[in-house]
Amino acid sequence: MGISGKRMMTLLKRLGFERLSTYEGEERAAAILAEEIRAIGVEPHIETFMAPRYTVKKVKLEITAPFYREIEATGCGFSGNAAAEGIEADFAYIEGFDPIDLVDVKGKIVLYAGGMGISAYESLIKAGALGFICTSGSFRDKKSETDLEERTLRDKHIEHGQIPGVTIRVKDALSLLPKHPTRVKLTLEQEEGEAPSRNVLAEIPGTRYPDEVILYTAHYDTVRFSKGYFDNATGSAMVMELLRHYKENPPMRTVRFLFCGSEERGLLGSMAYVKDHEEELDKIRLCINLDMAGPILGREVAAVTGEESLCHALTFYYKVMGYPMSVRQDIYSSDSIPFADKGIPGINFYRSAAPGTSQIHCRYDVIEILSGESLARTTEFVKGFSDRVINAAFFPIEKKMPDNMVEKLDRYLLKKKEGEKDGKKEDEKEGGKKNAGQKDKKTKQN
């Protein structure tokens, strides 16, 4: 039957709604994926795991002196309920998190232009700040055309404690500071806990080497306000097409397909799978992760988390096929990471959108910038390379993680802070935010 761009676009349209971790949309999407798998003739398996969930009940930010103004704000998830009845305190604007920036923040509510990284949050707590205000967006934003980002703290943040936080628009911060506010009141009430998230699995046993497993991964969840066509209904549709291909063309080695939930909350679905299936990881020889494809304008990319020889193999293959792309040895912030941390090589295939053509993690992750033709082209390449690996007479990829990749994985997973080497801390910096529409070494810490 072959790879069908039209079929993938149809699945994208079926998944075109907010699929937020632990909420109804993610559960609905898992059911759609399971239905598609059954239609192919394979029995799906849904594995439930618990993921963090919060619901903001009340949020309000007020300037109380020397003038009064209420500012639109969103509550920061998992920043606690210390401000449920409101906290009023002196206001401070800081430009960084060096000790000199934090000399006078004790007992104050602090504004910082940007997000709240883990070490920054720790520094605020140690300095005695009562709360924080982050900023989001651009000075060009129109409220009718943009949504105010809703940020979430991670486990690594709240290891250091909890202080309440909110996010406001950059535009509001720009208009506020020249008026020299001195007092602010922050109100934040939220429910914090856990709720079920879901991984959807399918498998086709190998005809000759069933104990050698190649794993395909893609996440299907989204962030708030996003329908997630590009990020990452596209990857899920590609994995579904590859499942169909191997159902019709039985592979020599076992192929397993993992549609991950809660990736946007910190790779929680793939981490749950690794934790729950640790005894099976020995059999997994390679992880192929598909995260964002299909832009009409863009560039094909493969990020290899493994031996450099795998980069050479991919480069050889794309040249033979006359298929322009970029290949690099690197980590990629998506669901191959937990497997790579266990020594399983990963290839992350994606199509980087051309500047100005896409946005992710917002309402502008739309289907109009994508095409079935583009999706099919990328999927055909992944299929061709996969076929040669899966049906090889002898498995050609060494299951080994080189030291330079281990170093990057350790830093990404916060086992080692940036700049730390041989137990000594040379420098510590928070990772930068991703560029809009791209996930090259994307960070999802805040």
Task: Briefly summarize what is shown.
By secondary structure, the protein is of the alpha/beta class. The chain has helices spanning 5-14, 24-40, 118-127, 155-158, 170-176, 229-248, 268-276, 308-321, 337-340, 372-390, 403-412, and strands spanning 45-65, 69-71, 74-75, 87-94, 108-112, 131-136, 165-169, 183-204, 209-219, 253-260, 284-290, 298-305, 326-329, 346-353, 420-421, 424-425. It folds into 2 domains: 5-53 and 195-405, Zn peptidases (Aminopeptidase), CATH 3.40.630.10; 67-181, Glucose Oxidase, domain 1.
By CATH, the superfamily of the largest domain comes out as Zn peptidases
Rg is 23 Å
CATH fold description of the largest domain: Aminopeptidase
Helix content: 25-40%
CATH architecture classification name of the largest domain? 3-Layer(aba) Sandwich
Largest sheet descriptor = 14 strands, mixed
H/I helix tally: 11
Low-confidence stretches: 419-446
End-to-end separation: 43 Å
Strand percentage lies at: 25-35%
- Tally of strands: 16
* Sheet/helix structural class: alpha/beta
CATH class of the largest domain: Alpha Beta
How would the global form be characterised? Answer: elongated
* The number of domains: 2
